[in-house]
Amino acid sequence: VLKGALGGAAALGLGSGLAACGGSDSGGSTSGGKAVVRMWSWYNDQEAQFPKLIEKFQAAHSNITIENRIFGTPDQYLPALQAAVAGGDVPEIFAPHTRALTYGTGGVSADLKQELGDDFLKDFFDSANQEYTLDGKQYAVGWMAQTFGLFYNPDLLQRAGVGEDQIETWDDLIAAAAKIRAIGKHPVALSCNPTTSSLDFFLPLITQVADDPTFYLELDQLKDGATYEDPKVVAAIALQQKIVNGGVFQPGTTGTSGDQAPQLFYTEKAAMLFNGSWTPQGLTQDAPPAFVKKYKVMKTPAIAPGKRHWTANQAGAGWAVSANSKNKDAALEFLRFLYSADEYSPTMNESNSMPATKSAATRIELPIMKQMTSWLLDGDGCPHIPFGPGSVAAGDPLAKIFDGKGEPAAVAKEMQQAVLNAKGG
Fold first, then answer.
1. Which of 284-288, 311-315, 318-322, 401-405 has the lowest mean pLDDT?
2. Could you tell me the pTM of the whole model?
């Protein structure tokens, strides 16, 4: 899911004002003769960097004023954005959350392939571009990428007799889990609360079964007859069931929040943690310094020896541009500035964030972030964020598998129906 929590996203309706605001000019206010570019997000990771970037840009562009507004959380942000969309006055630059494609096809967001061109977009990771693309049009660009992996405590693995290089496949992890439980520790801490968080773990399993990162992109849109009852999805659910029944996770994953899972890890109650690439930021703030120095990370296990270690990756944060603002050109100019080589890479490094471009990825300074980003450069990234209408609802039936209940074919059928119901079809 998106960094910061997706839990409330499924319950937030699009708003009846979408169609009404698609075709008319909006915003485009001026201040003292200057074009005003409003930028809305919840991206507090760069809260210290944005003022410096804005000051530098405005010094070189005396005719443009940037008004940056950072909301506390996605749950606080989304209602404000939806109200702006319904009122036909959308910020010139905004975080689209999971609504990038919906706002794009509704005429709210500009097609950045047309506005910025392929030369600008080709530097972004393919997975970051794909998540925002539909029918040849791209409605946002990635700001912060994210990958997932198994963070681990080398001391606990050693106590359990598990080698750091012995976990290549899910079968290897299941075997290691038995040894870890034998020393009184949980093997892997995982948060499935809210249930949409479980999709971060599960959706890459679909790619592992299909060995095709575009398979879920079509499933997400229910495109060309794609269905959750597809044998590949059922096989992925069966693999998920095998992992759960293998005792890999702590009891009660569907009751474990996104804050509680890392706590299990850094208090050494769990030997490993499945989580995203923002984890180093949190551990630096919350974990004992000695723990921060010793923990490591490994790739998500593969489905079989020699197979690709597909890992959840998309841009957990991105930027869209209002299609109808009179100040769209000024917004695009600021966007180009944000991604310029002299600004973007230092911004990501200073905030310990994972960049969404290949060129900035080669300039990462934090070792563990550099390691996790290298998996994307190796081509291991695959989708894990549900952008399609109603797609987040698939997480609710899936919770049965994490709770040790239900059978794959039946759960797949329930997932399909849940998505259709949420979609309104």
1. 311-315
2. 0.83
Distance CA 150, CA 274 (A): 5
Number of domains in the chain: 2
Checking DSSP bridges between strand 311-321 and strand 93-94, what pairing results, if any? antiparallel
Whether omega before 301 lies within 30 degrees of 0, making that bond cis, reads no
d(CA 81, CA 304): 44
Instruction: Mark whether 131 and 152 lie in a shared domain.
Output: no
Q: What's the pLDDT score for residue 16? A: 28
Task: Tell me what the mean pLDDT of segment 237-264 comes to.
Answer: 97
How do strand 34-41 and strand 93-94 relate by DSSP bridges? parallel
Q: Other CB atoms closer than 10 Å to residue 246's CB: what's the count? A: 17
Q: Same domain for 393 and 378?
A: no
135: burial class by Cβ within 10 Å (0-12, 13-18, 19+)?
A: exposed
What does the pLDDT look like over 147-164, one tens digit per residue?
A: 999 999 999 999 999 999
CATH number for the domain spanning 222: value is: 3.40.190.10
Distances (CA, A) of 294 to 153, 298, 299, 406: 7, 13, 17, 39
Q: CA 396, CA 195: separation in Å to the nearest integer?
A: 6
Q: What is the mean pLDDT of residues 47-76?
A: 95
Report d(CA 159, CA 335) in Å as an integer. 50
Tokens 């005003």 map to which residue? 36
